[in-house]
Automatic annotation (TrEMBL):
<dbReference type="Pfam" id="PF01557">
    <property type="entry name" value="FAA_hydrolase"/>
</dbReference>
<dbReference type="InterPro" id="IPR011234">
    <property type="entry name" value="Fumarylacetoacetase-like_C"/>
</dbReference>
<dbReference type="GO" id="GO:0016853">
    <property type="term" value="F:isomerase activity"/>
</dbReference>
<keyword id="KW-0479">Metal-binding</keyword>
<dbReference type="InterPro" id="IPR036663">
    <property type="entry name" value="Fumarylacetoacetase_C_sf"/>
</dbReference>
<dbReference type="GO" id="GO:0019752">
    <property type="term" value="P:carboxylic acid metabolic process"/>
</dbReference>
<feature type="domain" description="Fumarylacetoacetase-like C-terminal">
    <location>
        <begin position="77"/>
        <end position="282"/>
    </location>
</feature>
<comment type="similarity">
    <text>Belongs to the FAH family.</text>
</comment>
<dbReference type="GO" id="GO:0046872">
    <property type="term" value="F:metal ion binding"/>
</dbReference>
<protein>
    <submittedName>
        <fullName>5-oxopent-3-ene-1,2,5-tricarboxylate decarboxylase</fullName>
    </submittedName>
</protein>
<dbReference type="InterPro" id="IPR051121">
    <property type="entry name" value="FAH"/>
</dbReference>
Length: 285
């Protein structure tokens, strides 16, 4: 299933994304919560699956008539992994980490598909980072790597736009990664049965104004999804709706000569095989 959160007629709605548009799930299944996070927390995915045939046959709202929201806009935790592709670590002059580089993002920093990433007034060093997202579907604490994928609700796409000058002001990356409306997230949450286990072996590409900038594969993750979930659950309780942003492949703007920065008028797209394409224009604050 491809689940989406969207705004239509002034109301936040839960959608099933199809080729010809998006179906308002709650119009067909009354009583469901409107947020994907609550669907996961209340363990309601099975109810949607039971009605999937009817939903697929239902009339869809045109994509042009909706505003996409992040699939999860109120996560308890947005956990980000740095240098999780060896080639990206190398292009930044760093060694491949022996333990994940972990930092957090705030909910205010994220935005949905087709919504503008905002370049702030204080910096023009706005870089792109196409990344695979994993969303947790049930509470996880001290889980084994062998069992970790049982806790996955689905996968999505992230463009972790980063202010590189602010990132380098500190040994910690948080400040450069948390400017308002710099994290594109979407367009949908794809449930695991649609993808290989752990979403491994998927092409991941980033385009800036239709120019290919990043060309990687999720099979090259230094710490694959199951390993990340197991390691994170040693430290913290993962809960339904928690978001893990798994790292970016090589090809980022700051590592190019000359560097490439996103600017107003640009359009950045991240495509992951089997999931879709996240697109965001760039605007000034």
């Amino acid at each position: 299933m491809r689940l989406a959160s969207f705004l239509h007629d002034g109301e936040i709605k839960l959608g099933l994304l199809k080729a010809d548009g998006i179906v308002d799930i709650r119009s067909q299944i009354p009583g469901l919560p409107a947020s994907i996070k609550e669907i996961l927390r209340q363990d309601k995915l099975s109810e949607i699956r039971k009605s999937l045939g009817d939903l697929e046959d239902s009339e869809a709202i045109r994509i042009e008539d909706v505003t996409f929201l992040p699939p999860i806009s109120d996560a308890e935790k947005i956990i980000c992994i740095g240098r999780n592709y060896a080639a990206h670590a190398k292009e930044g002059g760093a060694e491949t980490p022996s333990y994940p580089e972990i930092f957090l993002r705030t909910n205010r920093s994220i935005l949905g598909h087709d919504q503008p990433i905002i370049r702030p007034k204080c910096s023009d060093k706005l870089d792109y980072e196409g990344e695979l997202v994993v969303v947790i579907g049930k509470t996880a604490r001290h889980v084994t790597e062998k069992d970790a994928l049982d806790y996955v609700a689905g996968y999505s796409i992230f463009n972790e736009a980063t202010l590189r000058d602010y990132q380098r002001k500190s040994t910690q990356w948080t400040i450069g990664k948390n400017f308002d409306k710099t994290g594109g997230f979407g367009p949908c949450l794809v449930t695991p049965e649609k993808l290989p286990p752990g979403a491994t072996g998927l092409s991941i590409k980033t385009f800036l104004n239709c120019n290919l900038m990043q060309d990687g594969n999720t099979g090259d993750l230094v710490f694959p999804i199951a390993k990340l979930i197991a390691l994170l659950s040693e430290c913290m309780t993962l809960v339904p709706g928690d978001v893990i942003v798994t790292g970016t492949p090589s090809g980022v703007g700051y590592a190019r000569n000359p560097p490439v920065w996103m600017k107003p008028g640009d359009i950045c797209q991240v495509s992951i095989e089997g999931i879709g394409t996240l697109s965001n224009p760039i605007e000034d604050e």
